[in-house]
Write a structure and sequence with these properties.
This protein is an alpha/beta fold. Helices cover 20% and strands 35% of the residues. The protein has three domains: 98 residues, Elongation Factor Tu (Ef-tu), domain 3 (Beta Barrel); 113 residues, Nucleotide-binding domain of ferredoxin-NADP reductase (FNR) module (Rossmann fold, 3-Layer(aba) Sandwich); 45 residues, Dihydroorotate dehydrogenase, electron transfer subunit (Dihydroorotate dehydrogenase B (pyrk subunit), domain 3, Ribbon). The longest helix is centred in the last third of the chain and has 13 residues.
């Protein structure tokens, strides 16, 4: 059940001149949230910007007893709303609606889970990594960016016990090129047992490539689709994704209700 609360800003960690991680106290949201879901955040108390903005749930924050007390957001400063989130101070309150959307489906403990992130597409994977580790699965994160300076939170994923494969387009860290290059190499040598499930979030061209690689190697894939969302609750139809309807045709599903997580094999790429 979604909750609308004024969440208290607990911390705002600036990772670079453009990226930050914002921690918010909101136990009513955090106690229900699942990896892959998102929050609609009102970035200003006034009318500019008027609409809330969608942000993937990054971490579920817990107290010493393990009780969920809040969540964090991984954000890149690209416009007015994200600028306000970059500048927000501890103690301020932000109106937050969530958790929203369809989350990732967790694989069985006998499977392998590989997460694929491009740039700000890292956003849903800290919570997913934690959930997978709780099942006894050690996930692998394939994480790519333009340069080493744009690979963030590596220490967090190390603490979560995640194996990491890095790639940068300029070759400054990890494999040279896009993250799908080491992913394709790894899939070629993975074998069928135990099975591999791919989880991905990032630019749509990357998601299309991941979906293609998954199909080629017989792996299921779950893709978190990035869409502009005007309302986040299904009323404005600004976030549609074209999917197969099961009868040889296609339809448009709303990412805010039917996603943001979709099976890669269901998406009709345009």
């Amino acid at each position: 059940m979604k909750v609308d609360v004024d969440a208290i800003v607990r911390s705002n960690a600036h990772l670079s001149p453009d990226f930050n991680v914002l921690a918010l106290e909101a136990p009513g949201i955090a106690g229900q949230a699942a990896p892959g879901q998102f929050i609609m955040v009102k970035t200003s108390a006034g009318d500019s910007p008027l609409l809330r903005r969608p942000y993937s749930l990054f971490e579920i924050l817990r107290d010493a007893r393990g009780t969920a007390t809040g969540f964090s957001l991984f954000s890149k400063r690209v416009g007015v709303g994200s600028q306000l989130l970059y500048d927000v101070a501890p103690g301020q309150r932000l109106a937050c609606l969530g958790p929203l959307g369809r989350p990732f489906e967790l694989v069985a403990s006998s499977a392998r889970a590989w997460m694929v992130a491009g740039g700000v597409g890292l956003a849903p994977f800290a919570a997913l990594a934690e959930a997978l580790r709780a099942r006894g699965i050690r996930p692998t994160l394939f994480y790519g960016a333009r340069t080493a300076r744009e690979l963030f939170c590596l220490d967090l994923f190390e603490r979560l016990g995640v194996e990491m494969v890095l790639a940068t387009e300029d070759g400054s860290l990890g494999a040279a090129g896009r993250v799908t290059v080491p992913l394709e190499e790894a899939l070629a040598g993975a074998g069928a047992h135990p099975p591999v499930t791919l989880y991905a979030c990032g630019p749509e061209a990357m998601l299309k490539a991941v979906s293609s690689l998954a199909a080629r190697h017989g792996c299921p894939s779950q893709l978190s689709m990035e869409r502009l969302m005007g309302c986040g609750v299904g009323g404005c139809y600004s976030c549609v994704v074209r999917v197969r309807d099961g009868n040889g045709g296609s339809r448009y599903d709303r990412a805010c209700l039917d996603g943001p997580v979709f099976r890669g094999e269901d998406i009709v790429w345009e």
